[in-house]
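Cross-check.
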Amino acid sequence: MKKILLLTVCLLTFGMQASVARSVEKSPVQEVVTDEYAELVKQYMTLGHAHENMCAMMTATYVQMKENLGLGEAQCKEMAHGITDLIYDDLVKASVDIYKKYFMLEDMKTLCEFMSTPVGQKFAKSNGAVSTEVMAAVGPMQGKIQKYVMEYLSKQR
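Predicted model, tokenized:
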């Protein structure tokens, strides 16, 4: 039962990201990556508080799994921050190739300009909290999800 719950949480966490990626058709945009482009992606992620938002989302995920992990909330937060710190630079580098599929250099400049505005910063600062609350809203739906997973798995066997 715990394994199914853990699997469900993992699938929700990473499935949401994958479904967003699938919902965006692969764009014909194939921007050539230059130092300027890479710097704009880094700037966009910085302006978007990507590090802080990633920490918040990972913390929320681990807190939901804290009993299965055998950790307290403070330890979950510490682990989420440690993992974020560990992979963040690699994530920024990997993001350059992802962004280039969908955004031209001028698009990245426009995104950075927007993120530099008060509304852009309000969006950036609240996006992590909003995403965390949305993820938490899934909690009460776990019973439905678990039932569906069990039914689906039984049909596949």
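The two ends are 18 Å apart (CA to CA). The CA atoms of residues 5 and 142 lie 8 Å apart. Passed to J.P. for a second look.
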